[in-house]
Protein backbone atom coordinates (compact mmCIF):
# COMPACT_ATOMS: atom_id res chain seq x y z
CA UNK A 1 0.00 0.00 0.00
CA UNK A 2 1.27 3.45 -0.90
CA UNK A 3 0.79 5.51 2.25
CA UNK A 4 1.18 8.81 0.39
CA UNK A 5 3.90 10.04 2.72
CA UNK A 6 6.65 10.81 0.22
CA UNK A 7 8.07 14.27 0.87
CA UNK A 8 6.24 14.76 4.15
CA UNK A 9 8.23 16.22 7.04
CA UNK A 10 8.02 14.27 10.30
CA UNK A 11 9.34 14.94 13.78
CA UNK A 12 9.98 11.81 15.84
CA UNK A 13 10.88 12.32 19.49
CA UNK A 14 12.80 9.58 21.24
CA UNK A 15 14.08 8.70 17.79
CA UNK A 16 17.53 7.35 18.62
CA UNK A 17 16.54 3.84 19.69
CA UNK A 18 13.78 1.33 20.26
CA UNK A 19 10.25 2.11 19.10
CA UNK A 20 11.13 5.67 18.09
CA UNK A 21 13.97 4.57 15.86
CA UNK A 22 11.77 1.92 14.25
CA UNK A 23 9.09 4.55 13.58
CA UNK A 24 11.69 6.78 11.96
CA UNK A 25 12.92 3.88 9.81
CA UNK A 26 9.44 3.06 8.52
CA UNK A 27 8.63 6.71 7.82
CA UNK A 28 11.96 7.09 5.98
CA UNK A 29 11.13 4.04 3.86
CA UNK A 30 7.87 5.75 2.95
CA UNK A 31 9.81 8.81 1.77
CA UNK A 32 9.44 11.14 4.75
CA UNK A 33 12.02 13.75 5.60
CA UNK A 34 12.88 13.48 9.27
CA UNK A 35 13.80 15.39 12.38
CA UNK A 36 15.01 12.94 15.00
CA UNK A 37 14.93 14.13 18.61
CA UNK A 38 16.56 12.66 21.71
CA UNK A 39 18.84 13.71 24.53
CA UNK A 40 21.75 11.53 23.39
CA UNK A 41 23.60 13.35 20.60
CA UNK A 42 25.84 10.41 19.71
CA UNK A 43 22.89 8.02 19.63
CA UNK A 44 21.07 10.38 17.30
CA UNK A 45 24.04 10.56 14.94
CA UNK A 46 24.26 6.78 14.79
CA UNK A 47 20.55 6.45 14.14
CA UNK A 48 20.51 9.14 11.44
CA UNK A 49 23.44 7.58 9.59
CA UNK A 50 21.28 4.60 8.66
CA UNK A 51 18.50 6.50 6.89
CA UNK A 52 18.42 7.03 3.15
CA UNK A 53 16.43 10.24 3.38
CA UNK A 54 16.76 13.87 4.38
CA UNK A 55 17.27 13.78 8.14
CA UNK A 56 18.30 16.28 10.79
CA UNK A 57 18.87 15.67 14.47
CA UNK A 58 18.11 17.80 17.52
CA UNK A 59 19.70 16.73 20.80
CA UNK A 60 17.55 18.27 23.50
CA UNK A 61 15.74 17.53 26.74
CA UNK A 62 12.05 18.05 26.01
CA UNK A 63 11.34 19.08 29.58
CA UNK A 64 13.57 22.17 29.37
CA UNK A 65 11.73 25.48 28.86
CA UNK A 66 13.03 26.02 25.31
CA UNK A 67 13.16 22.35 24.26
CA UNK A 68 9.96 22.20 22.17
CA UNK A 69 10.68 25.55 20.52
CA UNK A 70 14.18 24.47 19.51
CA UNK A 71 12.83 21.34 17.84
CA UNK A 72 10.17 23.13 15.84
CA UNK A 73 12.44 26.02 14.85
CA UNK A 74 15.20 23.67 13.65
CA UNK A 75 12.76 21.56 11.64
CA UNK A 76 11.17 24.52 9.92
CA UNK A 77 14.51 26.16 9.19
CA UNK A 78 16.10 23.05 7.67
CA UNK A 79 13.21 20.98 6.33
CA UNK A 80 10.32 23.40 5.82
CA UNK A 81 6.79 22.86 7.12
CA UNK A 82 5.91 20.12 9.59
CA UNK A 83 3.33 17.54 8.46
CA UNK A 84 3.74 14.83 11.09
CA UNK A 85 4.58 14.82 14.79
CA UNK A 86 5.23 11.54 16.59
CA UNK A 87 5.43 12.10 20.35
CA UNK A 88 7.32 9.00 21.41
CA UNK A 89 9.23 10.00 24.55
CA UNK A 90 8.02 8.63 27.86
CA UNK A 91 9.06 8.15 31.48
CA UNK A 92 8.23 5.28 33.82
CA UNK A 93 9.22 6.54 37.26
CA UNK A 94 8.65 5.45 40.83
CA UNK A 95 6.53 2.43 41.60
CA UNK A 96 3.50 1.96 43.82
CA UNK A 97 2.10 4.37 46.38
CA UNK A 98 5.00 4.04 48.81
CA UNK A 99 7.56 4.62 46.04
CA UNK A 100 5.83 7.63 44.44
CA UNK A 101 5.93 11.17 45.78
CA UNK A 102 4.73 14.48 44.37
CA UNK A 103 8.04 15.15 42.62
CA UNK A 104 7.89 11.77 40.86
CA UNK A 105 4.35 12.42 39.68
CA UNK A 106 5.28 15.89 38.45
CA UNK A 107 8.36 14.62 36.61
CA UNK A 108 6.26 11.94 34.91
CA UNK A 109 3.66 14.50 33.92
CA UNK A 110 6.28 16.79 32.38
CA UNK A 111 7.57 14.02 30.10
CA UNK A 112 4.39 12.08 29.34
CA UNK A 113 1.85 14.89 29.06
CA UNK A 114 3.30 18.40 29.13
CA UNK A 115 6.04 17.90 26.53
CA UNK A 116 3.72 16.24 23.96
CA UNK A 117 1.13 18.95 24.58
CA UNK A 118 3.60 21.80 24.06
CA UNK A 119 5.02 20.29 20.87
CA UNK A 120 1.52 19.67 19.53
CA UNK A 121 0.47 23.22 20.36
CA UNK A 122 3.44 24.57 18.40
CA UNK A 123 2.81 22.56 15.22
CA UNK A 124 -0.99 22.55 15.06
CA UNK A 125 -1.60 26.13 13.84
CA UNK A 126 0.37 25.54 10.62
CA UNK A 127 -1.22 22.11 10.14
CA UNK A 128 -4.68 23.66 10.36
CA UNK A 129 -3.68 26.35 7.89
CA UNK A 130 -2.34 23.88 5.31
CA UNK A 131 -5.22 21.43 5.75
CA UNK A 132 -3.12 18.40 6.57
CA UNK A 133 -1.46 17.14 9.72
CA UNK A 134 -0.90 13.98 11.68
CA UNK A 135 -0.03 13.75 15.37
CA UNK A 136 0.54 10.35 16.96
CA UNK A 137 1.34 9.91 20.64
CA UNK A 138 2.87 6.73 22.02
CA UNK A 139 0.77 5.92 25.07
CA UNK A 140 0.49 2.46 26.63
CA UNK A 141 -1.99 -0.26 27.46
CA UNK A 142 -1.25 0.78 31.05
CA UNK A 143 -2.87 4.11 30.32
CA UNK A 144 -6.06 2.21 29.47
CA UNK A 145 -6.10 -0.17 32.43
CA UNK A 146 -4.28 -0.93 35.68
CA UNK A 147 -0.97 -2.74 35.55
CA UNK A 148 1.96 -0.33 35.42
CA UNK A 149 3.62 1.97 37.90
CA UNK A 150 1.30 4.47 39.57
CA UNK A 151 2.71 7.65 37.98
CA UNK A 152 3.02 5.96 34.61
CA UNK A 153 -0.60 4.80 34.65
CA UNK A 154 -1.89 8.20 35.67
CA UNK A 155 0.09 10.20 33.13
CA UNK A 156 -0.39 7.79 30.23
CA UNK A 157 -4.14 7.89 30.88
CA UNK A 158 -3.88 11.69 30.81
CA UNK A 159 -1.99 11.53 27.51
CA UNK A 160 -4.74 9.38 25.99
CA UNK A 161 -7.32 11.91 27.17
CA UNK A 162 -5.25 14.75 25.70
CA UNK A 163 -5.33 13.01 22.34
CA UNK A 164 -9.12 12.87 22.32
CA UNK A 165 -9.44 16.53 23.33
CA UNK A 166 -7.03 17.73 20.64
CA UNK A 167 -8.55 15.46 18.00
CA UNK A 168 -12.01 16.95 18.39
CA UNK A 169 -10.66 20.49 18.09
CA UNK A 170 -8.69 20.03 14.86
CA UNK A 171 -10.63 17.40 12.91
CA UNK A 172 -12.45 19.93 10.71
CA UNK A 173 -9.09 21.18 9.38
CA UNK A 174 -7.87 17.88 7.91
CA UNK A 175 -5.71 17.15 10.95
CA UNK A 176 -5.89 13.95 12.99
CA UNK A 177 -4.56 13.19 16.46
CA UNK A 178 -4.32 9.59 17.66
CA UNK A 179 -2.49 7.50 20.20
CA UNK A 180 -0.93 4.08 19.90
CA UNK A 181 -0.96 1.89 23.00
CA UNK A 182 1.80 -0.72 22.84
CA UNK A 183 1.97 -3.70 25.10
CA UNK A 184 5.25 -5.28 26.19
CA UNK A 185 7.75 -4.48 23.44
CA UNK A 186 11.29 -5.82 23.66
CA UNK A 187 14.25 -4.12 21.97
CA UNK A 188 17.97 -4.02 22.78
CA UNK A 189 18.63 -1.94 25.88
CA UNK A 190 14.94 -1.46 26.65
CA UNK A 191 13.29 -2.22 29.98
CA UNK A 192 11.89 -5.59 28.93
CA UNK A 193 15.24 -6.61 27.47
CA UNK A 194 16.93 -5.76 30.76
CA UNK A 195 14.35 -7.76 32.69
CA UNK A 196 14.83 -10.79 30.47
CA UNK A 197 18.57 -10.67 31.03
CA UNK A 198 18.19 -10.21 34.80
CA UNK A 199 15.50 -12.86 35.32
CA UNK A 200 15.09 -15.13 32.28
CA UNK A 201 12.98 -17.73 34.11
CA UNK A 202 10.65 -15.11 35.59
CA UNK A 203 10.23 -13.49 32.19
CA UNK A 204 9.54 -16.89 30.60
CA UNK A 205 6.65 -17.34 33.02
CA UNK A 206 5.47 -13.79 32.34
CA UNK A 207 5.36 -14.45 28.60
CA UNK A 208 3.43 -17.69 29.09
CA UNK A 209 0.91 -16.15 31.50
CA UNK A 210 0.45 -12.63 30.15
CA UNK A 211 1.22 -12.57 26.41
CA UNK A 212 -1.29 -14.54 24.32
CA UNK A 213 1.06 -14.55 21.30
CA UNK A 214 3.72 -16.15 23.54
CA UNK A 215 6.37 -13.58 22.71
CA UNK A 216 7.25 -9.95 23.25
CA UNK A 217 6.25 -7.47 20.60
CA UNK A 218 8.81 -5.92 18.27
CA UNK A 219 9.41 -2.23 17.70
CA UNK A 220 8.66 -2.45 14.00
CA UNK A 221 5.23 -3.94 14.69
CA UNK A 222 4.36 -0.73 16.52
CA UNK A 223 6.05 1.43 13.91
CA UNK A 224 3.97 0.00 11.08
CA UNK A 225 0.77 1.01 12.84
CA UNK A 226 2.11 4.50 13.53
CA UNK A 227 3.02 4.93 9.85
CA UNK A 228 -0.49 3.99 8.80
CA UNK A 229 -2.00 6.53 11.20
CA UNK A 230 0.26 9.16 9.62
CA UNK A 231 -0.99 8.36 6.13
CA UNK A 232 -3.71 9.80 3.94
CA UNK A 233 -5.49 6.43 4.07
CA UNK A 234 -6.11 6.89 7.81
CA UNK A 235 -8.02 10.15 7.33
CA UNK A 236 -11.09 8.99 9.28
CA UNK A 237 -9.12 7.58 12.22
CA UNK A 238 -9.13 10.41 14.73
CA UNK A 239 -9.08 10.55 18.51
CA UNK A 240 -8.45 6.81 18.63
CA UNK A 241 -6.31 4.76 20.97
CA UNK A 242 -4.98 1.95 18.80
CA UNK A 243 -3.77 -1.03 20.81
CA UNK A 244 -0.72 -2.94 19.55
CA UNK A 245 -0.21 -5.69 22.10
CA UNK A 246 -1.07 -9.10 20.65
CA UNK A 247 -4.09 -9.36 22.96
CA UNK A 248 -2.13 -8.69 26.16
CA UNK A 249 -4.46 -5.97 27.49
CA UNK A 250 -7.58 -6.79 29.43
CA UNK A 251 -9.66 -3.73 28.63
CA UNK A 252 -12.93 -4.40 26.82
CA UNK A 253 -12.75 -1.06 25.01
Strand content: 15-25%
| Spatial separation of the terminal alpha carbons | 28 Å
Task: Give me the CATH fold name of the largest domain.
Answer: Rossmann fold
Mean pLDDT: 94
Shape: globular
CATH class of the largest domain: Alpha Beta
Give your account of this protein's structure:
The chain is α/β, with parallel strands linked by helices and 253 residues long. It has 2 domains: 9-182 and 219-238, Rossmann fold, CATH 3.40.50; 188-216, no CATH class. Helix content is 45%, strand content 15%. The chain contains 8 helices and 7 strands; from the N terminus they run βαβαβαβαβαβαααβ. Strands 3-2-1-4-5-6-7 form a 7-stranded parallel beta sheet, with helices on both faces. Helix 1 packs across helix 8 (219-229), helix 3 (67-79) runs parallel beside helix 4 (102-130) and helix 6 (191-198) crosses helix 7. The model has no long low-confidence stretch (mean pLDDT 94).
What's a quick, concise take on this entry?
The protein has 253 residues and is an alpha/beta fold. 45% of the residues lie in helices and 15% in strands. It has helices at residues 18-29, 41-48, 67-79, 102-130, 150-170, 191-198, 200-210, 219-229, and strands at residues 9-13, 33-38, 55-59, 84-87, 133-138, 175-182, 241-244.
Amino acid sequence: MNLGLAGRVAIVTGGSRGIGRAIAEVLAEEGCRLCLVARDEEGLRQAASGFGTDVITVAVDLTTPDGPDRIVEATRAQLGGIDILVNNTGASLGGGLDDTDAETLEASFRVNVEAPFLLSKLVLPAMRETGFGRIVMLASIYGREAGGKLAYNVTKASETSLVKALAREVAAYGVTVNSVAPGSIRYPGGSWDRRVQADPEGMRRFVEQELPVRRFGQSREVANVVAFLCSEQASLVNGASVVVDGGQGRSNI
